[in-house]
Amino acid sequence: MHGPPLVAWLLVALSATAAVSCVLRREARSEALLGVGMALMAVPLSVFDPPRWGTATLAVVFAAVAVHALRPSPRQALHRMHHSVCAGAMVYMSAAMAGAGSAHAGHAGHTSAGAPLLTGLLLLYFAGYVLGAGTRLATPGAAHAPHPAVPMAPGGAIRLRHAPEVAAACRVAMALAMFAMLLTL
Length: 185
Description:
Elements: H1 5-25, H2 29-42, H3 52-69, H4 77-99, H5 103-109, H6 116-138, H7 164-183
Helix pairs in contact: 1-2, 1-7, 2-3, 2-4, 3-4, 6-7
């Protein structure tokens, strides 16, 4: 991704942290995969210039995650749709990086690697998601009720890694990172 190295490293840290959070929650392994992919894609080009086959491989992996997220589940239809949009955006960014040829050549000319209309639509989607989900997360009266399957710690306290707020915060952080990565495309 193109942009200042400090921003790139902050995106790496945010994406990697979100991926670790998803791994700890166990039920969010595909979200963890997206977080790892986002962290890899955000590494500054001065440190790692991925080969064309590497970004193409990422696009294939993300496409598989997007298809997996589309499987029917009436319980979490909106979450699955969002997850599929995230994976689709990762496919788009990976393909744009692979299609741009050498990342340094594209960076030197400051050329855009993606389709402006699609990039704009994805930016609008992720901005809306971050604002909507972030507002719900930050609203004191909109606390998430614990899921019946959430393990309880001794004394009846919810284990933090299984708290619904952690999952929501993880999704907001990943959507924010996705927004920032799309800005640099």
